[in-house]
Specification:
CATH architecture: 6 Propeller
Helix content: under 10%
InterPro entries: Gal_Oxidase_central_sf, Kelch-typ_b-propeller, Kelch_1
CATH class: Mainly Beta
Number of strands: 31
Number of domains: 1
Radius of gyration: 18 Å
Keywords: Kelch repeat, Repeat
Length: about 325
């Protein structure tokens, strides 16, 4: 790993989206207050550039790249507002508000181009409500509610359905999982994970299988499990070398999952690969900084960009690049405002 140029703002719990032009858009997060700033990383020049700020400060929001290339940002900081970023103009436009304010929810882009937003919380109220955003009309429509209220869960699209996994309902950590079928707009419970978990990661392989890693349920977890949509069953796989919560996972081109950072009492710099074909984990070179709550993006050149996070003593504005071919982390130039 090696450091890239620092972002203009230190941030944790921000969002990162890979744009259709190959750049990475970073939005919001927290650094002694909620942030509305946004910045762009250009892999071709390895330079950061400030772009227009969002209309609202946001932490715990979602960021989704639509099929038209625009980015939809929703909620966070207990907001019901949503806004669209247009990369060609580098500008933000307010779109219609969601039916419910929500933070720490999930958003999934469906094959019909709509965006499904699920769960989250407003203060101490945990939500099971879900709603659909239609980019063609710019409107939100309530759809059927999940079977369980949850925040801090994860979601992924597999075999045309949205799989929502784990989280916390305000009273207990959840091991439940459920599937949303866009064709019927209904939720169906599927089998439970072997472990309840919150602050975990989710990754989808080409064959539709889903890997869930780590998180916490009163204790930090190193366990990992695989969901097979063809059977609807979870299977424990080899545990990670390090327990970790609030980490990131990236599916790289060779069908391996790179897991980095997180927290297990200290901010972690460690990194490891999961190989689905062998069901094993391999430790690789650590990052230069321990990071809880960073974000990762797989660039079009195959490198993995990791940004920000909490070091255990301060929020970070640093970023690092991992080159899978050489198994090294490298640096880029600083942000140009």
């Amino acid at each position: 790993w090696s450091n890239t140029g620092s972002m203009n703002y230190a941030r944790v719990s921000h969002r990162a989206s890979l744009l259709t032009n190959g750049r990475v858009l970073i939005t919001g997060g927290y650094n002694d207050g909620f942030l509305n700033s946004a910045e762009l990383y250009d892999p071709s020049t390895e330079i950061w550039t400030l772009t227009a700020a969002m209309h609202n400060t946001r932490q715990g929001h979602t960021s989704s790249v639509l099929t038209n290339g625009n980015v939809l940002v929703t909620g966070g900081s207990y907001l019901n507002t949503a806004e669209l970023y247009e990369p060609s103009k580098e500008s933000w436009t307010i779109t219609t508000t969601m039916n419910y304010a929500r933070q720490w929810h999930t958003a999934s882009v469906l094959s019909n181009e709509k965006v499904l937003v699920a769960g989250g919380r407003i203060g101490n109220v945990h939500l099971n409500s879900t709603e659909l955003y239609d980019p063609s009309t710019g409107t939100w429509t309530l759809t059927s509610a999940m079977n369980h209220a949850r925040q801090g869960h994860v979601s992924a699209l597999t075999n045309g359905k949205v799989l929502v996994v784990g989280g916390h309902d305000g009273n207990t950590y959840l091991n439940s999982a459920e599937l949303y079928d866009p064709s019927t707009e209904t939720w169906t419970l599927t089998s439970n994970m072997n472990y309840a978990r919150h602050g975990h990661t989710i990754s989808v392989f080409r064959d539709g299988k889903v890997l869930v890693t780590g998180g916490e349920n009163g204790a930090y977890l190193n366990s990992a499990e695989v969901y097979d949509p063809s059977t609807g069953m979870w299977t424990l796989t080899t545990a990670m070398n390090h327990a970790r919560y609030d980490h990131v996972a990236s599916l790289v081109s060779n069908e391996k999952v790179l897991v980095v950072g997180g927290w297990n009492g200290v901010a972690l710099s460690s990194a490891e690969f999961y190989d689905l074909s062998t069901g094993t984990w391999t430790t690789i070179y650590s990052m230069n900084f321990g990071r809880q709550g960073p974000r990762s993006s797989v660039l079009t050149n195959g490198k993995v960009l990791v940004t920000g996070g909490w070091s255990g003593s301060t929020n970070l504005n640093s970023a690092e690049l991992y080159e899978s071919k050489t198994e090294t982390w490298t640096t880029t130039d600083s942000i140009k405002g």
